[in-house]
Amino acid sequence: MPAGAASVTPRSITVGALLEEHHPFWVPRYQRAYSWDSQVSDFTGDVAELLQNSSPNAHFFGGLVCIEHTDHSLSRPHSYEIIDGQQRLATFVLALAQITHAARNLKQLAEDRGDDPAKAVAETLADDTESRFLKWRHAIVSEGRIEGRPRLRLSKVDDPVFQSLVDGSKPSASRESHELLIAANKIIFDDIIKPILEDSGSVTEKAQQLYRVRTGLIEQSHVIQVVSSDRERAYQLFSVLNDRGRSLEDADLLRSHTLDLLQEHPAEQEKVAVLWDEILSATTKDTSAFFKAYFPSTTGKRAGAPMFKKLVDQYFAPQAPNESPAVVDIVEQVESFQREMITFTKLANGEWPFGNQLSVGETPKVFNWHEDRLKRLILTLKHELALPLLLAAASSCKEEEFAKLVFMIEKFAFRYKSVCGGHATSASNIYYKEAKILREQASIRTRQTWSRLRDQLNKLLDYAAPSEKFRDDLQNKLQYSRGSQKPNIRELLTTIEDHHGWIQKGCSGPPVPDMTYVVDLNHVTIEHIYPQKPAASDRDTDLDKYVDYLGNLSFFGPKDNSDAGNKNFPAKSKDFYSPSRINMTRHLSSYTQWTLAEFKQRHTWILDMACKIFVL
After folding, report:
1. Same domain flag for 431 and 488
2. Which conformational region is residue 99 in: left (phi greater than 0), alpha (psi within -120 to 50 degrees), or beta?
3. Is pLDDT larger for residue 543 or for residue 148?
4. Backbone angle region of 509, left / alpha / beta, with phi > 0 → left and psi within -120 to 50 → alpha
5. Could you tell me if 86 and 191 lie in one domain?
6. How far is Cα 289 from Cα 527, in angstroms, rounded to an integer?
7. In Å, what is the CA distance from 88 to each residue of 34, 39, 111, 201?
8. What's the rounded Cα separation, in Å, for the pair 569 and 534?
9. To the nearest 10°, the Cα dihedral for 424, 425, 430, 432?
10. Are residues 229 and 277 in the same domain?
């Protein structure tokens, strides 16, 4: 600790006491803007988990570093400049504001129904929440009035939007942090408040549920508040807690914890120290991502906060009260971390996790084509939420079984998430449970057919991505003019190309791809059959509005695409389509012309093939 750090005052405090007793808080102008994105879902998940736990035990939500300012000319002389922790505190305030607005809506509903007791309950909850945690009363004696002021103000660029959300308005966004604040507010409503309001219970019962949420937020949620009256000391402490801008991570804490457990076993302690050096040689982001994947991969459930405590409880819990875990178990567990971190790093980079396992004379069952599917799943479709399951499968299954799993998830991810926008949580829950089962059955080494997983994913597709929706979303979303959809267009067209032989045989039986060659998505360029910028003599007004639709798209290698340019259909058909090695592109030369009729025919064919191929 730097010299003079004793001048700071750390304390564990509930969020309710923090807001009620130590306001107002404010974020200086130079601080970074609101930046929570996926962390908001983690927050709501932690709150939901807190509410399911009947125990009154505290839930730790991190730290808050403040500088205390004193001005005795003000009606409230003390205020607190936030140096670290604005993200979590702002999110707590948004959650409490949502409770206030929901209670006021219930009050109105009760009033409309003439239910005075329920109206009183909802009104009391709303007024009490606002007066104790959202606003404070500032007396302006010279003017003879009292006004409500916010207990938390964000930085200058964010505060107008933040206060509008706290007051229940619908602000517009002019920068990314505004969008994140608005999105955070919606996630809190959707995940916590909406299920209560849509419950079949009475107004009073709904108000009581809101009160239970508030209790969890203000009484069971704790933070470590560190207050200093000295700016230099506060920033010195902030620097200690944040190594080069990096928050003290769960892996760092876990390393210290395990080495402390081995204090009386120097040989094992040194071995574990070396293992941790290897684990922590990765970036903080990658190490954090590993533990967030490893925990559900072994437990079957999400890794929420506080993650450090969950990791300790799960992997280093003592066999009996007042005892330490066995030394050999500690070493083996850290060895497992290090080993699986290597596998995870490969998976997260889209690299095949298996080495050359063939015996002399053995026929390979896994090809480069299979390895490319993993790259597509992680790097093209960005379906990282499957990493816990892939991590479990890589250590529990045979290579050919792993290959089948990857291709199945790739097809599912494209249809469910990339095209139909299915909710990640539903898929994650299935992946997590399957991962845990895989690890539990690892010693049995049963042959994996993935039938159980396939059935569960199919049920999810039937609900969130049925054929009709998949077909409509393919048509409406996968348009070249939408730049973000270009990877999905490449994925769709090349996967249809992979199934050319099966299509030629009449699509008989389950879809079977040709695995003898790999279409490298990095070198695929999208071809517009009717060109984007046709010559005036080649202009077709019927096709102009469909130029970026799937029926007008195929693919080339990079050189063919640049050479073909904006030539008309007859010229491209002869010089580029006919000699193409790509079956679907070569097939275009069978058309004598390219009009609206040909476009519609091919567009329908692509949609038909997608619905037949992207099945499990």
Report:
1. no
2. alpha
3. 543
4. left
5. yes
6. 37
7. 10, 9, 35, 31
8. 10
9. 100
10. no
